[in-house]
Amino acid sequence: MHHHLRPAMMPVLAAAVLLLATLSQAHNITRILAQHPEFSTFNHYLTLTHLAPEINGRTTITVCAVDNAAMDELLSKHPSIYTIKNILSLHVLLDYFGAKKLHQITNGTALAATMYQATGTAPGSAGFVNITDLHGGKVGFGAENNDGTLTSTFVKSVEEMPYNISVIQISKILPSAAAEAPAPAPTQQNLTSIMSKHGCKVFAENFFVHSDALNNFNENLRGGLTVFCPLDDAFKAFLPKFKNLTASGKLALLEFHGVPVYQSLATLKSNNGLQNTLATDGANKFDFTVQNDGEDVTLKTRLTTAKITDTIIDQQPLAVFAINKVLLPKELFKGQALAPAPAPEPSAADAPAPAKGKKKKKKAADAPAADSNSDAPADSPGDAADDTADDSNGAVIPEGRSFGNVVIALGLVFGLPLVL
């Protein structure tokens, strides 16, 4: 029997082929370098500085690795781990350069942006690398702010996956005064000052009143912390709701915007899914879902979908991102929508229907005072269904399910019977 493709099914086939292509292109820089012992120190520090997951989360990228001798020279200067991250970030180019392309650079010279530039902390052009095709088949590399001096040369290609990732060896660490400058340790970072200076002043001011929240953020800073701070307009609109919360509710709301793990934007893009927060406590989940929406990264609770609008700071182990909405945990705002401005007391018709057969969790007392009598329990009968729906909308396909989806898609295309 011959199966003919119907025009209407062509998009399904295209999607299946694209999914297969995406799966086949996934790369892991740690595994690639593990096959080459001469790069073991470089590989170790990619993991230690959390650059490895950032590299794995990107495509069209080039990693300029150096051997153990070159790394020993860098480490002999005893830089902090934060400075090492800046230096190694300068060795990750946000473009694809295989061996062939390096020897065929248009006009002989190219200027490549690096992951150091992408952090937003590189001054001027310090985050760019000059690549020049020299005479005699050599290719030189140099930091753009190093007076154009090409201090390192191309040694060999380690692994190429066109045009996804290229791992090449260069002869030496690229010197850069900006990248080598002492980077502040996380304990020296003033969280409230950082947020206030970047459009989140109203949110930050609440930490002065609720010092327990600030202490919790600072205590997690050394081990790793990611903060999502609502911009001023968003938090101003939310203030009437915030003022109605109990003291413990206000504390939980602030802590809900902190995650006790350092995650860069690239890591968030590659690791979609549920995130515990500083407010998470046993049965009180206080979690939200990270989900990609194209190039945007969104944070979803049952009541809110906020978008990351800016990277305020990204210096391992601290990342601070601006978001366009206040995150509303279901534990505090059950079944309610956020009013854009101060509103009258909700009427009885607006109150959510009480859940059946469940006792209230203790966090229910933290709900807004005006609505406390009508709040549904922390785990209402609809919770399980909603959680399932949230999971099904996630951008990450669980391991083992990806190829099953492809088989189903191809079966639909060709009209084949499927046995599940």
Automatic annotation (TrEMBL):
Database matches in InterPro entries: FAS1_dom_sf, FAS1_domain, Plant_FLA
Signal peptide segment: 1-26
Biological-process GO terms, alphabetical: root development; shoot system development
One GO term describing the cellular component: plasma membrane
Domain FAS1 residues, every copy: 26-174, 187-327
Membrane topology: Lipid-anchor; GPI-anchor
Source domain of life: Eukaryota
Pfam families, alphabetized: Fasciclin (PF02469)
Location of the region described as Disordered in the Swiss-Prot/TrEMBL record: 339-396
PROSITE patterns: FAS1 (PS50213)
Keywords, in A-Z order: Cell membrane, Glycoprotein, GPI-anchor, Lipoprotein, Membrane, Proteoglycan, Repeat, Signal
Function comment: May be a cell surface adhesion protein.
Family designation: Belongs to the fasciclin-like AGP family.
Protein name, entry field: Fasciclin-like arabinogalactan protein 1-like protein
UniProt organism field: Phaseolus vulgaris
